[in-house]
Structures are given as C-alpha cells and as structure tokens.
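G., the chain you wanted modeled:
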Amino acid sequence: MFIDVLSIVGLTVLAGACIPLGGLLASFERIRPNWLEQEFRHFVIALGGGILLGAVAVVFIPEGRSSMGGSLLAIPAILAGGLIFFLIERVLGLKRRESPQLLGVMLDFIPEAAALGGLAVVNTEIALLMALLIALQNLPEGFNAYRELLYLKGHSSRKTLVFMSSLVITGPVAGLFGYFFLSERPVLLGSLMLMSSGGILYLIFQDIAPQSRLDRHWGPPLGAVLGFCITLFSHYLVI
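Predicted structure as tokens:
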C-alpha cells in the first residue's frame, strides 16, 4: 500500500510539474520574427488539442467502457461530462476573462489524476501511460495558460509562475482520492473517465481548436495530428 501511495504521489507530481514547466518555457524571450512566434504558439495549442483527443480516443473511452462492463450507460456519461464542463465554464466566467487554457488545464488534470489513482491498482500499465499523457498535455497547456494569465491585469511573470506551481498539489490530492475511493469501484472509475472524455471533447471544440486556427498556415493542423500520434505511440510503447 505504501509503495502504491508513493507511486501515485510521484507520478501525479511529475505530471503536474509540467504545468509550471510549460509556463517557464513560455516566459522565455519571444521568438523573432513575429509571424514565427504566432505560428509556434498556434502549433503548441494544436499539439495540446491533439494529445487530448488522442487520450480520449486511445485511453479514456476504451478504459472507461471496459470498467463499466461495456454498458450503454457510457454514452450518457460522456454527454453528462460535456454538459458539466459547459456549466463550469459558464459559472467560472473564465471565457470572458480570456483564459480558457487554464480552465482546460484544471478540468482535465484533476479528473485524470483521480482516474490515474484508481487505475494504479487495477491496471498499472494503463496508469503509467496515463501519467505520461497527462504530462505531455500539461506541457503545452501550461505554455498557453501562462500567455493567457500574463495578459490579465495584475499578473506579472513571477506571480503567474508561482500560481501555476501551486496547481501541482491538486494532482496528488486527486490521485490519492482515486486510489482510496475509486480503485474498488470500477463503475464509478469508468464513469469518471467517460465524463472526463465528454468534458475534454467539449473543451477541444469550444476553446482549443478555434484558438489553434491561423489563416494560410499549415503548422497548427499538423500540430494536432502530431499530438494524436504522440498519444498513439505512447500507447504502443506501454501496451
């Protein structure tokens, strides 16, 4: 048990650390010329969206349906997830403050970390894959969230990085919740993964995909394809 807890804390901390790491990368001096900086930022946004889409298609929906025994209840669970993420976005009002990437970071990181904790006992290989995918998606999301937060009133570079670093602790908390509460409740674990899938799909098409588009540029769409392929390759490596 102690080894399991230690592993969950270690994996979720490392995955969460990619949030401020992405912010740190974004804090470096701007790329020149300006068109290249724009292209790179949109590429990173699309890359994060591709990884999220891959995580949904390769891990969350297959594993969620499996945990629920292939039940058709998977469909309303996915729909419920999309609706819940929509309601949270409206309540928080983050879209009006132009920081949907921060919303995306937290709304997918917390349930994913909880699912990771629940899977640590049931399926160690999938838990490791999930930790890798969380880290991969947190990096570009952290990069983009930093840029969004920095432009808000009262957010300096240092203050933004400190705030993003404080989000790391939510990973172990959610992971341990999943370990102690969800590992022996496969239906709940599957429901959480499927609801997360619905929420992630909502965020991709509501916030991430529209931001990634750049007129007359091919880099961002290829970033989305590359992100999906990274997820698929990671799945092959683990499985």
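The mean pLDDT is 79.

Shout if anything looks off.
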